[in-house]
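Thread: aspartate transaminase, structure

OP (GT): Posting the sequence first so everyone is looking at the same thing. Length is 380 residues per the record. Can we get the structure tokens written out before standup tomorrow? I want them in the notebook alongside the other entries.
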Amino acid sequence: AQRLARPASTTVFERMSALARETGAINLGQGFPDLPEPPELIAAAQAALAERSNQYPPMRGLAELRRAIAAYYAAEQGLAVAEEEIVVTSGATEALASALLALVRPGDEVILIQPCYDAYQPLIERAGGTPRFVNLTPPHWTLDQSALAAAITPATRGVVLNSPNNPVGALLDAATLEAIGALCERRDLWVVSDEVWEGTILDGSAHRSALAVPALRDRTVKVGSAGKIFSLTGWKIGWAIAAPPLAGAVAARHQFLTFTTATPLQWAVAEGLALPSAWHREHRARYAHAKARLVRGLTEAGFAVLPASATWFVTIDLAASGLAADDEAVARTLIETAGVASIPVSAFYAEAAERGYVRLCFAKDDGTLDEAVRRLAAFR
Ligand code: PMP
Ligand code: GLN
């Protein structure tokens, strides 16, 4: 085992899904929807397989897809990005890997804001960098700007942002993003902005991209994922967007990680991105319905559910629910005794600063959610 590079273990999502399969538990752990999949995209993928090329696309992605991504951001977010600034990748995971391998040099420090997605730390370490952690403050998961500034040292080169945040669904507000912009400009830091949950904001807030902050426009790599926008997590079509010099550096890494990603699915995502705003509104409405159903059921059963603006997740505050605040123990008991898989939020911390929350995925049909609530209520 000593010969293996870190990390040599399996992610919490994979472990929880395997455990759910073994025990027959309802899987509200790993974030994937169990709702009708967009028929427009399925039909487009079938047509592309039959009628278009199944050979290598251009290394940076089909021009048609890159144009569709640019048009989508112009229409949905009023964000201007050029085709030349986009690199299509095998999911957001590969966009993150390409960006971090391009930006992090041995000895660099990179700031991570916890709770944060589990891929960032190993990728930074793989590039020879060292993560430095700043914690969001519950229950609203706000960012203390002085804590962020205090984490910067002479070795700091960049910051990874994730708004909307997985696991807690919090957004960085406009003032905070502006302040981060001013700080990054002053200290000459780059930003990797993981915005994969941008299409899942359910409380009416607008998505704010780091690329829309003038001070960050030329120092940011924005990461997106069709898997999240269209609820097709297995498609693994993602992208990185940055000013041309940065985009070139990301593409240089991408070419030796995967080089390209599935051509027919690129065509299908390009067609999907041309769907009107009304389609996205209706798609979100289906998710808002599922979220309201799970939150109502959990609340009626006596669980304290924290507010969340976005993602497919809600979190339960264990102490406020009258439960022992040890999220891993609770998650284990829930899967073994109640038959419901969840994700302990401490898995999103390097040093488990918070142990008082578990995350549940609500992107399921009504029957699944009702049965999960019934099991959780009986468990209490
Ligand atoms: N970043 C975050 C914050 C995520 O939640 C996920 C998916 N769970 C990813 C990146 C990876 O996205 P993809 O499946 O497109 O690789
Ligand atoms: N992003 C999904 C989640 O947070 C799953 C990611 C994964 O399985 N690696 O649950």
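GT: Both are above now. Quick notes for whoever picks this up: The two ends are 41 Å apart (CA to CA). Residues 11, 13, 30-31, 166 surround glutamine (ligand 2) (CB under 6 Å).
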